Amino acid sequence: MAIAVFFAEGFEEIEALTVVDLTRRAGIETKMISVTGEKQVTGSHGISVTMDQVLEEVDFNQLEMLVLPGGMPGTLNLKACEPLMEQVKAFEREGKYLAAICAAPTVFGGLGLLKKRKACCYPGMEEQLEAAQVGYEPCIVSDKIITSRGMGTAMDFGLQLVAVFQGEDAANKLSGTIVYK
User: Fold this and answer.
1) Per-residue b/e over 7-32, b at no fewer than 16 CB within 10 Å?
2) β-strands 2-7, 29-34: how paired?
3) Cβ neighbours of residue 70 under 8 Å, at least 6 residues apart?
4) What is the pLDDT of residue 122?
5) Which member of 102, 120, 121, 139 is catalytic?
6) Is the pLDDT reported for residue 124 higher than 80?
7) Domains, the chain
8) Mapping DSSP to helix (H, G, I), strand (E, B) and coil, where does residue 51 land?
9) Distance between CA 153 and CA 155 in Å, rounded?
10) CA-CA 20 to 30 A from 61: which of 25, 30, 86, 180?
């Protein structure tokens, strides 16, 4: 099982890297994927990160979850990546996990993936969660779509991804080892 976190220029650093850090600490294979065609991607606060792969190298059959971090213009750049959007739609059709935080859940809304599902996003963007039941919890799991609200909920989001793959006990244990809650 593997998770892929997708990076576009202008990604929110804490949201993306917290997920990578926590899932890797839990022993979950987690790949950092660039949608820019370049191995180096720069976040919205000027932090450049070296990726494991570029989108064109990804074998999506080996993945169990796609993760979209927020940030601006990172979210818009992810949304503009048509090959990634096709994979997001395919994952939803196949019943595989999708996760997004901050502004990125609006990508799922725009694709019509949130109908009859509960979801959350960055405050003020709720109207873009088209046809979703909007919630305000730090992190919401609805079927196999996981959403979270923003940088301040990145720890909750990352730990929820660990819980999905390894159970609540593993997430709680990890939470304790990193002195969170």
Assistant:
1) bbbbbbbbbbbbbbebbeebebebbb
2) parallel
3) 11, 12, 15, 100, 101, 102, 103, 104, 122, 150, 151
4) 97
5) 102
6) yes
7) 2-171 (3.40.50.880)
8) coil
9) 6
10) 25
The rounded distance, in Å, linking the Cα atoms of 24 and 75 is 23
Geometric angle at alpha carbon 17, from 53 and 173, rounded to 5°:
115
Paired tokens of 56: 């064109």
Whether omega before 73 lies within 30 degrees of 0, making that bond cis, reads yes
- Predicted confidence (pLDDT) per residue in 137-169, tens digit: 999 999 999 999 999 999 999 999 999 999 999
Position of tokens 């609540």?
168
Tell me the one-letter amino acid at 134.
V
Distances (CA, A) of 56 to 21, 23, 81: 24, 23, 12
pLDDT band at 99 (very low <50, low <70, confident <90, very high): very high
| Beta carbons of 122 and 150 less than 8 angstroms apart | yes
Extract the runs of DSSP E, i.e. beta strands, from 20-73.
29-34, 40-42, 48-50, 53-54, 65-68
Q: 48, 53, 79, 69: which is closest to 147 by C-alpha? A: 69
Dist. CA 119–CA 133, nearest whole Å? 6
Give yes or no: 81 in active site.
no
Residue pLDDT, tens place only, 3-50: 999 999 999 999 999 999 999 999 999 999 999 999 999 999 999 999
